[in-house]
Amino acid sequence: MASSTWFLLAFVASLCLVKDGHLFCNADPTDGFTPVPLTESDFDIQKPYDKPLQDRYSYINGVHKMWVYSTDKPFKPGSPTKPRTEIRIRGHDYSSGVWQFEGYGFVPEGTTGTSIMQILGSNGPVLMLKVYDGQLNYYSQKLVEPNIYNRWMRVNVIHDVDANKLTVFINGVQKLEVEGRGPSTFYFKCGVYTQNDPSHYMESRWKNIRVLKRN
Predict the structure, then answer these.
(1) Three-point CA angle 18, 162, 167, nearest 5°
(2) Rounded to a whole number, what is the distance in angstroms from the first to the last CA of the chain?
(3) Quick one: pLDDT at residue 5?
(4) Where does the sequence pass through the membrane (predicted)?
(5) What angle do CA 165, 171, 172 make, to 5 degrees?
(6) Which helix (H) or strand (E) holds 12?
(7) Which helix (H) or strand (E) holds 188?
(8) Which 3 state secondary structure label does DSSP give 14?
(9) Contact 163/152 with Cβ under 8 angstroms?
């Protein structure tokens, strides 16, 4: 019995390692999930209302590049919100089940004071990933990933609505698990959305964006 237990523990250890204080196993965050079909019409670009799309957004070689200035207008006249250029995923709003956003994000050096990924509910955001001085944070409370400037990172955000739980993975490593904010109807966003103490120019790039649902 003891030898069997030792073998099992050794097998599990061979599949897992500890990195930066986080347990990382060979299982992928998307295991057990199925991608939902996304079309061009599902990518709704929100940008300063007085600017043509090409002045704040480009899509070249599979990369969505979004940028905004801290002095820009909001996304619609009369809105009290701050400047943004964001992709709002449409057609896949959800209020139950387990859903996942996946994308590869890139933030150039100098961009700060901006949200690059959000989950929005009917009453506002339930998750924001913000960039401050080269660090990716959950709101302004918890460090998710350091030293993010000028490199691509795989971002997976899982929202278990029924369990009221949010989990964030960076490059396959779980970096955050927090409670949600209760029931609502939710959707995913990514790009740049101005926050406190922003740089004048803010930019993020995204590619291979997917939305998945647990089987």
Answers:
(1) 25
(2) 36
(3) 42
(4) none
(5) 55
(6) helix 2-15
(7) strand 187-194
(8) helix
(9) no
Which of these, 74, 93, 82, 147, lies nearest to 115 by C-alpha position? 82
- CA 131 – CA 147 distance, rounded (Å): 10
C-alpha–C-alpha distance, residues 132 and 107, integer Å = 11
Strand order in the sheet with 135-138: 43-46, 84-89, 187-194, 114-121, 124-132, 135-138, 142-145
Tokens 């956003």 locate to 101
Both structure tokens of 34: 């199925």
Residue 141: what pLDDT? 86
Evaluate whether 100 touches 157 at the Cβ level (below 8 Å).
Answer: yes
Residue 4, helix vs strand vs coil: helix
Tokens of 114: 């901006």
* All domains of the chain in start order, with CATH: 27-214 (2.60.120.200)
* Tens-place pLDDT, residues 82-96: 999 999 999 999 999
pTM here is 0.88
Q: What is the pLDDT of residue 16?
A: 54
Residue type, 165: K
Give the whole-angstrom CA distance, residue 93 versus residue 37: 13
Q: Which residues contact 165 (CB under 8 A, 6 or more apart)?
A: 159, 177, 178, 179, 180
Q: Is the distance from CB of 80 to CB of 100 less than 8 angstroms?
A: no
Q: Is the pLDDT of residue 136 over 80?
A: yes
How far, in Å, CA of 200 to CA of 11, rounded?
51
Query: What number of other Cβ atoms are within 10 A of residue 18's Cβ?
Result: 8
- Structure-token pair, residue 105: 């994000």
Decide if 103 contacts 206 (C-beta within 8 A).
yes
What does DSSP assign to residue 163? Answer: T
